[in-house]
Amino acid sequence: MHFQIKHLVRLNPCVSVQRKRTLWKTLWAVSAAKQRGVRPAGSHASADIQKHFSLQCSRNYASDTAYNRAFASARDNPEAFWGEVGRDINWFEPWSKTLHVEDPVFPNWFVGGKLNMCYNAVDRHVESGRGEQPAIIYDSPVTGTKQIITFRELQDQVSRLAGVFAKYGVQKGDLVVIYMPMVPQAMFTMLACARIGAPHSLIFGGFASKELSVRIDHAKPKLMVTASFGIEPGRRVEYIPLVKKALELSTYRPCKVLIYNRPNMEKVQMIPELGLDWEEEMATARPHDCVSVPSNHPLYVLYTSGTTGTPKGVVRDTAGYAVMLKWTMSNIYGLSPGDVWWAASDLGWVVGHSYICYGPLLHGNSTVLYEGKPVGTPDPGAFFRVLSEHGATSLFTAPTAIRAIRQQDHHAAIGKKYPLTRLRSLFVAGERCDVETLEWAKRSFGVPVLDHWWQT
């Protein structure tokens, strides 16, 4: 069953659906950039910090004049504005028309163009000589594991995993459900899906069997990918019993369930008739090339949490999302390729999709994948340690995380043990940031703190 957008749009008594077209929403990001990128937060910021934080990019929007010009261009002539930005992405076939608006709810961007998200996020960096640069910096205090994965190693893992998917019949348009913890294999799976044009639906690991079953029934995945355990401070989350229960509750069953057994833990038993062992399959897998997809091909479906009703499956297509994300990494966050970036979120949320996985990799940044908490893994100095140890340029987190650190280390005594010589900026989002938290963060991290907001 090939996944199509019309499959989601049809009425469903269990799950209603909304569709997002990314570039239509990007003006929100542009309109907020004035507060984020024009100057460091706080009038007392030093001249060195202000100079250091200036956005370094080919299109410099760091001044009021440049910002106003960019905003006016995106607002008044979005076709010309985004047509220029779109050249920063590699295309298998160029687009014939930047914007076609037959239906204002569903505008078509980069009409006729063909591309591949995985190629832009992985392969092109290897081809351009960045193969030995770190792509993923995995830091897991809950398991005591640290791992650096280069772009070349990422390409190898992702291309072979895509070969596993193809071996079991996953084709362009088939949907894959991902239910995994914060491990590199979750990102491998996302990128492998993109590589063969299979939309993925990554489901937050904190959801239990009932929530998982609802999403399985609605998404109707050809394949499901999961792991043996999730690790929380002081306990393990057994994923396989949750998956088995979800499959019992759901009316739809995927063809296969690929299971990643975490190292240094007991190996879980395969699900009868469905289970595939990750290590065994990868050992014999053949690499798979990137598949060309149209601009509006769905990249993923992300379900809302359901706290305001039934979950809503949000579809994001490929080209608009890729163009917007790469643009934000330089023009909103001020990064250059090669910089280390850390979005302290979860892959199961939209920030994780956009700014742990796709955004930084598209831009050629090293992205930190952190399996831990702001406090308790092992102490409130955890964020400072990660930033210092990996030389991060910028941190993106939620005010709640900063409040938790402040509560346990009010004077940042533990945090001050870690020099933050490369850190330039701290971005907060997801909720209101109160003044006390913002001021504490500025003092403790020693960089501008930029409160910004998006559409969810």
From TrEMBL:
Every Acetyl-coenzyme A synthetase N-terminal domain range: 67-121
Highest taxon of the lineage: Eukaryota
Record Pfam families: ACAS_N, AMP-binding
Stored InterPro entries: ACAS_N, AMP-binding_CS, AMP-dep_synth/lig_dom, ANL_N_sf
Catalytic activity: butanoate + ATP + CoA = butanoyl-CoA + AMP + diphosphate
GO BP, sorted A to Z: lipid metabolic process
Positions of the AMP-dependent synthetase/ligase domain: 129-456
GO CC entries: mitochondrial matrix
Top EC class of this enzyme: ligase
Keywords of the record: Lipid metabolism
Gene Ontology MF annotations: acetate-CoA ligase activity; propionate-CoA ligase activity
EC number: 6.2.1.1
Signal sequence range: none
Similarity comment: family membership: Belongs to the ATP-dependent AMP-binding enzyme family.
Protein name: Acyl-CoA synthetase short-chain family member 3, mitochondrial
